[in-house]
Specification:
Elements lengths: L1 E4 L5 H8 L6 H18 L1 H12 L7 E2 L1 H8 L4 H19 L8 E4 L2 E9 L2 E5 L8 H14 L3 E5 L10 H10 L4 E2 L3 H10 L9 E3 L4 H12 L4 E2 L7 E6 L5 H12 L6 E6 L2 H15 L5 H9 L2 E4 L3 H11 L3 E5 L15 E4 L5 H6 L25 E9 L1 H17 L3 H12 L5
Parallel strand pairs: 1-12, 5-6, 5-8, 8-9, 10-11, 10-13, 11-12, 13-14
Antiparallel strand pairs: 2-7, 3-4, 4-15
Helix pairs in contact: 2-3, 2-8, 2-9, 4-7, 5-6, 5-7, 6-7, 8-9, 10-11, 10-12, 15-16
Bound molecules: nicotinamide-adenine-dinucleotide, L-histidinol and zinc ion.
L-histidinol binds next to α6.
Length: 432
C-alpha cells in the first residue's frame, strides 16, 4: 500500500487518486456490449451459453421453482437461520420507518397540490454470486421492494457449481415470499431483466450491486433508454479516517473487510500520524495471512493507499473528494466531523462501529454508490422502489385566483392554446 503526504499532493494528484478507472475498463465495456447483444438476439440460449462459459455449469432449467427453493432452504443450519431472521427484522424496521405520506399544500385559496407514492410495478434484483454468494444483498433489496409494494419482483443470481443456489439465499427467498430465482449472473442477467427472454420477464428498474461486468451492464441498459437502474454499485470501497484514538488492529480489520470483496476493491486509510499508518499496515500483514480470501484481499490492498494528513480538515477534504461508498470515522471525536461530511454512501461512527455491521444486520442498506457516484446518488432505500406522482385540484375559487397568472404566462410564451384552457373556464358562467 502506497503512502502519500496530503501536503505534497497537488489538486491534480488528488483528482487522480480519487479516480477508480482501471486500465481494462474499455475492454469490459466492449465485452458487456457483446453479451447484451447476444442476450437480446438469442434470449434463454444465450443465458445457458454464458452460464457454461462463465459459471461452468450446464443448465437445463434457468430458474429454481418454489419447491426447489424450499428443499434447498431446508438445509440451512439453525444459527444461520436465526442470524438471517435478526438481520431481516432490523433491516425491515429501518426501512419501514422510511415510508411517509406528504401533506397536501394549498398554494393559493382553492388550489391544492400533493404527491402520492406508487410502487414501481416490476423490478429486477441482482444478487451477486461470483466469488461469494451474498444473501445479505437479497435482504437489502427484497425487503424495501416488498415494503414499497412492488408487484412483480424478478430475482437473478449466478448459478453455483451444482447448478443451483445455496441454502442461505434460498432461505432469504422463503422469508421474502419470492417463489422463483433465475440462475443468471453477470452482464447477461442484467440484459435479461432489461430486455426479457423466454424465461426471464423484463422489468422497469434493475437493482443491485455486482462486479464491473454487472455495473457496466446496468450503465449500458440505462443508456439504451430501456430500463431504469438504482445506481452504479460496483466494486466495494471503504475510506477510514483515523486519529490517535483509533485502534490499528480495528482499522486494519475494517480495511481488509472491504478488500476481500474483490481484487478491484479499494481500502483507503487517512490518518493524522505516520506511526498509526505504520502500525495499521503491520496489522494488515498480520491479519491478511489468516484470511481464506487472502489472495483477493492482498491484491486489493496493493491497489489501495494511505494518506498522511496534518489535521482532520485535510482528512475530510480528501474524503469528500473521494466520495467513498463507506466512510468510517475511527475516532472518538466523530461528532464534530459529521457536519463536514458532504459525499459518502454510508457512514460508520466511532471505534466500535465496524462497517460489517451495516453490511449485514444493523438495518441500513448496503447497496451503495461506488466510484465517486456518492457525490450524486444515495444508497438503496424505500424511495428507490417508488415513484411520486403529483396531484392537483382547483376549485371555482382557485380558478379565479390562479387563472390570470396562467393566462399571462401562456401569452408570454406565445402558447395561445394553453391560455385558452383557462379563459374558456373563466368565461363559463358556472366556472366549470
Ligand atoms: N456497491 C455495493 O453496494 C456492493 C454490495 C455488495 C457487493 N458489491 C460488489 O459486488 C461484486 C461481486 O462480484 P462477484 O464477481 O463476486 O459476483 P457477481 O455476481 O457480481 O459477478 C459474477 C458474474 O460475473 C460474470 N463474469 C465473471 N467473469 C467474467 C468475464 N471475464 N467476462 C464476462 N462476465 C464475467 C459471470 O457471469 C459471473 O456469473 C464485488 O465487486 C463486490 O465488491 C458491491
Ligand atoms: N460491503 C458490501 C457493499 O459494498 C456489502 C456486503 C455484502 N456482504 C458483505 N458485504
Ligand atoms: Zn462487505
Amino acid at each position: 500500500m502506497k503512502i502519500y503526504k496530503y501536503t505534497d499532493l497537488s489538486k491534480q494528484n488528488i483528482e487522480e487518486l480519487c479516480l477508480r478507472q482501471l486500465a481494462d475498463d474499455a475492454s469490459i465495456a466492449k465485452s458487456v456490449k457483446a453479451i447484451i447483444g447476444k442476450v437480446k438476439s438469442a434470449g434463454d440460449q444465450a443465458l445457458r451459453d454464458y452460464a457454461l462459459q462463465f459459471d461452468k455449469v450446464n443448465l437445463d432449467q434457468l430458474f429454481l421453482t418454489k419447491d426447489e427453493i424450499a428443499q434447498i432452504a431446508s438445509e440451512i443450519p439453525d444459527d444461520a437461520r436465526a442470524a438471517i431472521d435478526t438481520a431481516y427484522a432490523n433491516i425491515k424496521k429501518f426501512h419501514a420507518a422510511q415510508i411517509s405520506q406528504e401533506a397536501k399544500v394549498e398554494t393559493m385559496p382553492g388550489v391544492s397540490c400533493w404527491r402520492e407514492a406508487r410502487a414501481i410495478a416490476r423490478v429486477g434484483l441482482y444478487i451477486p454470486g461470483g466469488t461469494a454468494v451474498l444473501p445479505s444483498t437479497f435482504l437489502m433489496l427484497g425487503i424495501p421492494a416488498i415494503l414499497a409494494g412492488c408487484q412483480e419482483i424478478v430475482v437473478c443470481s449466478p448459478p453455483q457449481q451444482n447448478g443451483k443456489t445455496n441454502c442461505f439465499l434460498a432461505y432469504c427467498a422463503q422469508l421474502l415470499g419470492i417463489e422463483k430465482i433465475y440462475l443468471a449472473g453477470g452482464a447477461q442477467a442484467i440484459a435479461a431483466m432489461a430486455f426479457g427472454t423466454e424465461s426471464v420477464p423484463e422489468v422497469y428498474k434493475i437493482f443491485g450491486p455486482g462486479n464491473r461486468y454487472v455495473t457496466q451492464a446496468k450503465q449500458q441498459v440505462l443508456a439504451s433508454g430501456i430500463t431504469a437502474i438504482d445506481m452504479p454499485a460496483g466494486p466495494s470501497e471503504v475510506l477510514v479516517i483515523a486519529d490517535e484514538t483509533a485502534s490499528p488492529a480495528f482499522v486494519a480489520a475494517d480495511l481488509l473487510a472491504q478488500a476481500e470483496h474483490g481484487t478491484d476493491s479499494q481500502a483507503i486509510l487517512i490518518a493524522n500520524s505516520a506511526a498509526l499508518i505504520t502500525e495499521t499496515l503491520q496489522q494488515i500483514e498480520l491479519q491478511l495471512s489468516e484470511l481464506p480470501r487472502k489472495d483477493i484481499a492482498a491484491q486489493a490492498i496493493v491497489n489501495s493507499y494511505a494518506v498522511l494528513v496534518e489535521n482532520m480538515t485535510q482528512a475530510m477534504a480528501f474524503s469528500n473528494a473521494y466520495a467513498p461508498e463507506h466512510l468510517i470515522l475511527a475516532t472518538d471525536h466523530y461528532e464534530e466531523l459529521i457536519p463536514q461530511i458532504i459525499n459518502a454512501g454510508s457512514v460508520f461512527l466511532g471505534n466500535l462501529t465496524p462497517e460489517s455491521a451495516g453490511d449485514y444486520a444493523s438495518g441500513t442498506n448496503h447497496t451503495l454508490p461506488t466510484s465517486g457516484f456518492a457525490k450524486a446518488y444515495s444508497g438503496v432505500s424505500i424511495d428507490s422502489f417508488i415513484k411520486k406522482i403529483t396531484f392537483q385540484h382547483i376549485s371555482p375559487q382557485g380558478l379565479t385566483a390562479i387563472g390570470p397568472t396562467v393566462e399571462i404566462l401562456a401569452a408570454a410564451e406565445g402558447l395561445q392554446a394553453h391560455k385558452n384552457a383557462i379563459t374558456i373556464r373563466l368565461k363559463s358562467s358556472d366556472g366549470y
